[in-house]
Protein 1
Amino acid sequence: MPTIRKNRGVAGILFIGLLPIMVIFMAFSMQMSQQMLAHARVLEAAEVASLALIASPKESEDDNVKYARQLVDRYVVDNINDVDVEVYTRKCEYKDGCVQASGEVAPFSDFVVSAKAEHKSWIAYEEAELKPEFEVAGKSVTRKYLPQPVDVYFIGDFSGSMTGHWKGGKTKLDVVKQTIERVVEDIADFNTEEKSRVALLGYNPLHVKQSGTVYLNAYGYRRSWPKKIAYDYARGTSAQTVAKMFDPPSVYSRVQEYVRGMSRLDVENLVVNNDRFVDYYKFYDIPLTEDYTHFKARLASAWLGAEGGTSSWNGIIAAAQEANRATNINPEQVFIVLSDGADNDTNYLQRLVNQGLCTKLRSTISAKRNRFQSKTGSAGKTKVTMGVIGVDYRVKESDGFGDCFGRKNIYHAKDGDDVYKYILNLINEETGRLKD
């Protein structure tokens, strides 16, 4: 018993001796907890502000700071003075070599928000370095990839079924043309280093190019027709079609020109054939261009109509050749098929895909050096995106589109707004994320 009482006495003495240290340690822990909590709140506030600003930047840096402070103040509520908030933006672009040096795949913009706040300590004890006030700071960097200049190839269905009426009393063709015009206006507003470009490659059973006008003034006829040529990209077999997909196509038919010395009968036949030709092949391609005004004018032309059957591969191969001919291409190459029905030969596209049509298109175009690519080819590699939008039509994957475009890039548009939305889905890949 005496030993137990002795040990209790020693323990009591030790407890009394350690009590001040324990109190100081408890006070220190409470202040550290307070500071850690305050720092977490400031850091969270900075992250929220940077995300909000990158999603909806204001007109000036002063407005950005004001907006960021409003957001920060909602999170930091126990500060003793105004929170010190700083906001700035830094861009990384191809033209200054930043993208190549950073190793990123595209130009980007960083929104940097830093916040600093002062707080009154729960417990203060100067002798133990427990200050009556303390300061915490946090910074957040949110990165958003900037829209890159893009080359868009609209592969349009100009078969007769596109003249059918859709929602709102407009034909499907009119809706598609107006939607493409709307998208081109959006592209014109893209704030990119270089201008984006657009092209229209159409198809019914064939593909048609137009250049200039054919005139006739003979035997009492005074006529003119657009100078059109209809091309067929199909060869003897599907394997030959793919093997020669970048070779000049076969001329199927064309608008005939008057030749001096023609007989009256020849001229009469020329008039009949040319009228029949332009009535059946009412469309034409619009080559890749950054002249949006000219593109929209040709797109809106009353001479751009639809007739006949459907052979989508002619439009796809025509677009592939257009992209292959292009020089100084943009880093994003986007091919978009807009169709309201299956091909007349529902198996031919699948046979072409099995022979490597889409694989060859992707590999050939992605291997082309784009206008930003470094000499070593190590940064800014050309990217190819392909998609198909069914215009009031559910595209069947088994028709070849599934293996060519992939399931995630097959869309079913129920109205014009869907067409617009899905086109932008394929063109835009703007993302914002916190920088690691």
Protein 2
Amino acid sequence: MPMKKRAFLVLFALSLTTLSGCAALQSLLNGAFKKPTLKFKTARLANASLSDATVDLVYELDNPNSLGLKLASVDYAFFVEGKQLVAGKPKEGLNLKSNGKSQIVFPANVKFADIAPVVTTFLDKDAAAFRAQGTLGIQTPLGVLKFPLEKEGTFPVPKIPQVQFQAPRITNVTLSGATVEFPLAITNRNAFPLPVAGITGALKVAGANVGNLSTGNLGMLDGSGTKQVTLPLTINFASAASAAMALRSGGNAQVSLTGNLTSDAQSVPLNLSQLVNFTK
């Protein structure tokens, strides 16, 4: 047999052996590797204020194999109330647990002014509708497996804190005026923390303008928590005759505060009116 023909037959036989080995290996992998599962877990708010919030869509990948996997690719889009927003995505190469579950988080910053022309209109909603779409690629021994990210649902819209007067206390009364301490209770109606940069407004007692109140920065309100602040104000009787009568006699009087509550960069109108009992 000529040398060239013999060499060709040897190479051909080697290639068949290699292909056969690859096929056997692939068959072994197909039998041993179990396909992971991906499921949606929750939509949660993070870093929420009355101006914006981060919405985290949380997925869970269950890898039943003893081999750890990696995130290969992400193609992702996020919509709120039908409007597409810029959304973050996990970095490619993210390590995923072997024989266990890994959380994969897709964050999106939602500026409420981008959703509704009047932010207070949006804040009056209990929940906002979202839609996520795209694919997630996981690197496996069998190649990249693609998982759909299609999901529709809702997330809670931050609620404006509740503000209430407590019983004011008259600390000093003279012929010309009185010093009154006005306690305010600010309650976070959300289960998550909410920043309150301050409350300011014009105060009336018994229909008379008596001055302005300002809380200063109240910091972070705990989820479902209440913060109390006491604001002293000196009232001049000469410019507030009806208030003078109410304060001199004690008892009940109508108190109103018209102003704004500010959270982060967003101010919302505050109109508070209560019948309160003045104590000495």
Protein 3
Amino acid sequence: MAKDDHLRQGATVGVAVSVTAGSVSGMVARAVTAPLDVIKIRLQLESYYNSHAKVPQYNGIIPTLKKIIATEGGIKRLWKGNIPAEIMYMLYGATQFTCYSTVNTFLTQTENRHNFKVPVSLHSLILGSVSGVFSTLVSYPFDVLRTRLASNRSKHFASMFGCSIDMLKHEGIKSFYSGIGTAVSGVSLSMGLTFFAYEFLRNLDSHYDELAFIEPISGFMAGIIAKSSTFPLDLIRRRLQVHRKWLGHERETFMTISKKIFIREGLRGFYSGLTPALLKTAPTTAISIWTYEYVVRGLEKAQAFG
């Protein structure tokens, strides 16, 4: 295995380096994949907003892309909600990789102290799940804001500040954590599977050092596996995030939303927007992990020469 795999079992990365590299990785990943995120959210919320429409407004990636550009004011509208999303991704990336590195060190020291060894894949699963939970709790209000802004169908950008004030006024502070239970469950499982799959795939080839693209390939496949497995939870979370009781919507819970989706749309309804989600998540995971590794190596070299 490569000596500079900073996510491997027993790897040690300083907190400052993890925070910096994690923030940069989140920022870069978000900037590249933002349009797919907006398209995914529109498809996930289509039946929620248009439950009685015979013809859906958004149906498929290309038609949705064309409709947003044509009716909302051009291509830049594909970056709606980008400010809170960038903040969210930076917070999420910094917390995720820092937590992963810190718990990795703690768990490895505990193993050495008590003379036992957790299997590599299980080790990655535990670290991914724990880091996913902490990252979600830290960044979640910006995730809710991102969803609200990305679901805005008008020609005008809604401001993050204006949306925040509106939520506080009409819905209270709790609205910034709408769907948090579903999010924690989904993200902990998703991130656990991501790091589990990433480390598993990286260790399949004994000639790792000869394969220059093993990191992005492993990250890409890990993203597909994790997102496909947990997508229904992500879809339900989005619908909980945009629920507005003060507008006359009935109170909705995880179970009521699940029943509505199944009755109206069948099992396929739980996977509305899966294609753009996979097109977004796989490269996001690959870019995020690759950027993290790249920045960590760069910072470590700078420290060595400093």
